[in-house]
């Protein structure tokens, strides 16, 4: 008969739970004994039943194994004071490294601004010059890109306004006529009074009488 797989959950039936506890307890103690004999290991097992009854197995001495376990835990656990000192030293080292980086950045900033250049060698000055040239090139490239983007935006706005103007003209049946600059320049000028055909005469003295 094939036994089904046991589900890992609490057995609700009290009788079945007690039977299972007895079987598994004996199996565990047997495995502990076999491990101590076959592998020459120091093994200690402590079991409390649901009713509080103690079951134990020790390959040598239960008390001796427990004391050995306590000593081992004490040796493995690091001292709190030592850990705090190590953490403090690590934090101090990180703070010192950060201060050096900040100082280096401040020196580089002053050099880029043209300050504190006295101790610089020719090679350092050339490096600063090259760095400034690269920065200027990057700034100019970015400026040209911004200009192009603005021009494209203006073109898009022009297209939108032109489309709206056309739509309004078609809606109201109005076709605005705009004369070109050339047509405006070719318009005839009005004749001035200087070119008038009217002749005038100026007489001095009494008016003449016609016969």
Largest sheet: 2 strands, antiparallel
Overall mean pLDDT stands at 80
Task: Report the order of strands and helices.
Answer: HEEHHHH
Q: Numbering strands along the chain, what is their spatial order in the largest sheet?
A: 1-2
Main location: nucleus
Keywords: DNA-binding, Nucleus, Transcription, Transcription regulation
GO molecular function, one term: DNA-binding transcription factor activity
Subcellular location: Nucleus
Fold and architecture overview:
The chain has 211 residues and is mainly alpha-helical. It has 3 domains: 14-77, SRF-like (3-Layer(aba) Sandwich); 79-119; 120-170. Helix content is 62%, strand content 5%. It has helices spanning 14-39, 62-76, 80-112, 122-172, 181-185; strands at 44-48, 54-58. It has a two-stranded antiparallel ribbon. A hairpin with a 5-residue loop joins β1 (44-48) and β2. The protein is elongated, with a radius of gyration of 53 Å. The protein starts with 13 loop residues before the first helix and ends in a 26-residue tail after the last helix. Mean pLDDT is 80; it is low at 192-200. Residues 180-198 have a biased composition (Basic and acidic residues). Residues 169-211 are annotated as: Disordered. GO terms for molecular function: DNA-binding transcription factor activity; protein dimerization activity; RNA polymerase II transcription regulatory region sequence-specific DNA binding. InterPro entries: MADS-box/MEF2_TF, MEF2-like_N, TF_Kbox, TF_MADSbox, TF_MADSbox_sf.
């Amino acid at each position: 008969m094939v036994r089904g797989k046991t589900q890992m959950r609490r057995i609700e039936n009290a009788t079945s739970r007690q039977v299972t506890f007895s079987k598994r307890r004996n199996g565990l103690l047997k495995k502990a004994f076999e491990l101590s004999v076959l592998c020459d290991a120091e093994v200690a097992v402590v079991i409390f039943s649901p009713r509080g009854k103690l079951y134990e197995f020790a390959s040598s001495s239960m008390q001796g194994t427990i004391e050995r376990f306590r000593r081992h835990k004490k040796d493995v656990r690091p001292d709190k004071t030592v850990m705090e000192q190590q953490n403090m030293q690590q934090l101090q080292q990180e703070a010192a490294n950060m201060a050096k980086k900040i100082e280096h950045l401040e020196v580089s900033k002053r050099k880029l601004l043209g300050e504190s250049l006295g101790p610089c060698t020719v090679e350092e000055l050339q490096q600063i010059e090259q760095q400034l040239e690269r920065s200027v090139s990057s700034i100019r490239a970015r400026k040209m890109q911004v200009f192009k983007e603005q021009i494209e935006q203006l073109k898009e706005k022009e297209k939108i306004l032109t489309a709206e103007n056309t739509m309004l003209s078609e809606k109201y049946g109005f076709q605005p006529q705009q004369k070109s600059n050339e047509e405006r320049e070719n318009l005839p000028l009005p004749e001035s009074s200087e070119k008038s055909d009217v002749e005038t005469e100026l007489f001095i003295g009494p008016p003449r009488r016609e016969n």
